[in-house]
Amino acid sequence: MRQAVSWTRFDSAGLVRILAELAVADVADAKQTFAERLGEWLDLKDALALYSALNSAAGNSPPRAPPAAALRAQLAQVRGDLAAAVAAAGTAQPGGANLGLPTPLPNAAPESAADFAPFHRYYLAHQRAMATAVGPLRASVRAALSAQSAAFKQLAALDAVMEQAFAAREASLLATVPVLLGRRFAHLFETHQRGREAAQPDDPAQWMQSGGWLARFCAELQRVLLAELDLRLMPVAGLVAALDKESTEIQ
Fold it and tell me: b/e per residue, 214-230, with b = 16+ CB within 10 A?
């Protein structure tokens, strides 16, 4: 049995919960309603476009058999490819896309090895890969919806307006994630430094061993990336779920 897509408050999204667990972000109860926050995020142009999409005539054209199965497979393929890239532990190659997980160089000094910059670049590279894949997928699903019925065409138009309206805000918010992870990186390294015996040399080669502070950070980093991936795919999953529901009703 397929699980229905669950729409919750943004505060309840997996990405926000994980950042809160890592003690790098505060999650406070929202004091504003969704409508109030939406009003702050939309400018006049976006508000007019949203009004037009909401008030366009849906019509009564009979629905076709929706290609829900094909779109589900497309969604699963995109998520699987992006998740596999995150899970891969390959070392980043010089001049490449930096999708490989950074690791300390052999014989590196602790001061140079404890540099967050490679991890920041790694996270940004995966964010670019997500944006490159999810954007076309979302547009493809909207096109499939538009071809089904007037009601689905209206839904697709609404999603297009929402994507355009929130693109800048989404990019701004997601750009803070690697910054927050930088704080976590610094905290774990400082804790490691305080906990080790001063007489013992600090060997960065041990940091990635089981129980090492950097191995722990890398696992957390990948967990955050996967949560961000699911967040980015939520609108697409919602559109596919709408087609799923239509398929069930037609059958």
Answer: bebbbebbbbbbbbbbe
